[in-house]
Write a structure and sequence with these properties.
alpha+beta; two-stranded antiparallel sheet; Nuclear Transport Factor 2, Chain: A; about 130 residues
Length: about 130
């Protein structure tokens, strides 16, 4: 029986620049983890925040200051879909589910995507909340 090591196709440097304890090299986010982190980073970045790349980002942080509810959830869903389709070429978006938490004025976001080099879909979720 032979085992194949999973091939690293996508890699991004971690933003905390943590060194690998064994080698001392900077640790990487690879494959699906890199895509997930990139998606969350894109969604929590406003336009004009990135130096020399003013178009990259989404407008969802401003939408989070609206009252939580189904209409705001639909607006957020459309903004998330547009951002991922425009700025994350490494995946094919399958589904976005927004669950409003009206008591906290936050949203639980569940994103399902398929990396372009894989047949398997992957789902991850995170909480969107407004911060000042």
């Amino acid at each position: 029986m032979t085992f194949r090591k999973k091939e690293i196709v996508y890699s991004d440097i971690r933003n905390d620049l943590a060194p690998n304890p064994a080698t001392g090299d900077i640790m990487l986010r690879v494959n699906e983890e890199a895509i997930e982190y990139s998606v969350v980073n894109l969604l929590t970045t406003n336009r004009y925040e990135r130096l020399m790349q003013p178009a990259i980002g989404s407008g969802i942080l401003g939408t989070l200051f609206e009252n939580a509810g189904p209409i705001t959830s639909d607006i957020l869903r459309e903004q998330i879909i547009d951002t991922i389709q425009n700025f994350e070429p490494r995946c094919i978006l399958t589904d976005v589910i927004i669950i409003p938490r009206m008591d906290d004025n936050t949203y639980e976001v569940e994103i399902t995507f398929k990396p372009i080099n894989s047949e398997e879909s992957r789902t991850f979720s995170f909480i969107l909340d407004r911060t000042r």
